[in-house]
Predict the structure.
Amino acid sequence: MKLKILDIIPKTFRLRGVGVSLTIFVRALLNFVGLAALLPVLYLILDAENLHSNTILQSIYDLFGFSSDSNFVIAVAVAVVLFIIVKNLINLLLYRVERDYIYALYRHLSRRLFIGYFEQGLQFIKKENSAVLSRNVNVVCYTFITGVLRPLATLASEALLLVMIFLSIAIYSPVGALLAVAVFIPVAWLYFSLMRYRLDRYGNVENEAQRRKYRDVIESFRGYADIEINNAFEHRLSLFDRELDTIVEVGRKNATISMLPQNFTETGLAVGMALLLCIGTIWSGADMKILFGVFAIAGLRLLPSARNIMGAWSALRYNRYTIDILSESSAESDKIAEQGSTEQLTLSGSIEVRNLSFRFDNGTHDTLHNLSLSIHKGEKVGINGESGVGKTTLLNILLGLYTPTEGGVYIDGVKLEGDILRKWQNSIGYVSQSTFLTDSTILSNIALGCDEKDVDMAQVERCIEAASLSEFVASLPKGIHTRIGECGALLSGGQRQRIGIARALYKRADILFFDEATSSLDNATEQSINRAIEELSASNKDLTIVVVAHRDSSLDYCDRIVTLEKTNI
């Protein structure tokens, strides 16, 4: 587990982690010194009449020239209080170093996981459940920080303090040290033995239930219309309730377990005090009083330390599932994606598909096999064929979203790969069957990826006009600043597609790809959008258009049509 945690932490954070480890050690040392500072007060309370017989206290007494025992006692008390205050302030500053490190690491891990998932490409995104990926990025990273790393820091700090306290007791009184070992070691062993496997199991069960609940909620909202029409909400709710019951039951058990460290340690302390009292009936005197007092102070500090260690260990075991999830992604480079190039690759000749074959990662045969075709600058090319022949797959390859198994795509003779890929995607526009829209304004969706302050408003207006959106936008009270709801829920299908066209044009793209862009629209809306595309082509003879469609009516304006056939290879 330690090696997995180290693998998860990026190299840039490991060196900084050494400094944080030092702050943990210093905090433990300060807490120990703070505890030791109480001993003079304890001694003065239990054996004030023998003040001058204590070498250390007498030395301090003489050093500062005290002439009154009462003044000396007051001075010691004030000094101890001031020291504890200063110690706590320093502790707070050191803790801020640890806190800032941990949350900076959380930000880095969450961002890295988000980027890592995104950069694994379209095949990975389609294969995985988006609700699970979202939870991993938003929840699991945070749980790893708060439920694994912070408990580890607590374990380290409190364990160091325990060792220091134990060694001090051992130096002062071997009997007291043996008593502490005899009391607390069995208590800790019993707790760890009873809870170890339970916590592992509870953590995994809770994580899986949270994943399923997260997925059920997202799917229910996304499929509201179908769920309502088919009267399926009661079934969806029963699935939700089942996972919720699991989470509540596990939460109850974990809440009970979280109380056990206090019960175990308090029982251990009571046993230790009782044993000391029994010993005191046989061996009495001032030394016994001091030993009892030392054990009481040490015990009172051991009690929260032992409790914190047990609690931190419990949290670590309960949340260890996050280590496995994040270790899977940590195999990727620590390099974090930077802002991509905005340079475009202008098409001057043709797009060539040469001997291209493609097979999905889990496929048993090629979706496309040994395909070759050319698309010349300024052409309007339609791609059709029956379902499953690979029309959308071919388009995704042309878009650079899929990598061919064999062969390749060449832009003016240059293969579409490496640095060329980003430049190519900067120069093309894409409108899908279901245009991606964010829950924001029309303006933000047209200028996707741009801050509103950086948007070229004149270009937006031209794109709105070209996509035949002007009349619709003018009818809105807030115009282009109108919010359109999740996935454009407040718009019609035609309006969503026109925003997609306006977005493609805003990029000043000279190649437009349409993937079944009108297949879900009524005939009138389809014809209207097709006319808009024709007008775009007529006004810009260099504009290259590639259209994937089932219906021949969607391809009437194309110069030529490429028909794909199914392959069984």
